[in-house]
Amino acid sequence: MTNSNFIDSCTGQYEQMISQFLSHEYAVVDGFLPENIVLGLRQNLLAFNQAGLMYPAGVGKDFDFKRNATIRGDKIRWIESDTKDVFEDYLLQKILGFITYLNRSCFAGLRSFEFHYALYTQNSFYKRHKDQFKNDKGRQFSLVIYLNREWDVEDGGILSLYPDSGEVRIKLLMGRAVFFKSDQTEHEVHPALRKSRLSIAGWLKN
Ligand code: OGA
Ligand code: MN
Fold it and tell me: What are residue 145's phi and psi, to 5 degrees?
């Protein structure tokens, strides 16, 4: 599918994302990706993990980068922009469509993006933080998509957002996307309590 076809068929979702964001400082859109794509991405993540191809995440960037499991304990794998995998390609096309839409309708000035798989094994978490680095202000918007098939509140791992209006707790529904401003909205991943928490997280950059 070409980029412009993609934009036409996804306009409703992009619009929903933007209007929620404008009124609440964040957006939650269910079914952001079709189920077969979510299941494919989920399989990819599990296969990468089986093959030992997921790596401990860090905090900070370049000279500021460090691994610190008391801040975050997830394992990640970056998605290549020239991927040949059909599921990853669908995701990236969808993101590209969203970027084009944001630039056209909101003059967002976005020029690139980066996305990674993330795996929080039992007891892993990510303490309250913002996503924009101190020494690289490129990250403008954050987008997280959940890949777990079933996830109960008792499984932990909930995402807390801290917009100005107060804490919002987001349940992890398969295919759900959460969107917020990288330099503005603090958020936190609570410990995964009973099983591994699978997601994709990424950033739209200027
Ligand atoms: C991140 C992050 C949130 C989530 O990767 O920076 O905050 O719900 N992820 O996985
Ligand atoms: Mn974050």
Answer: -130, 135
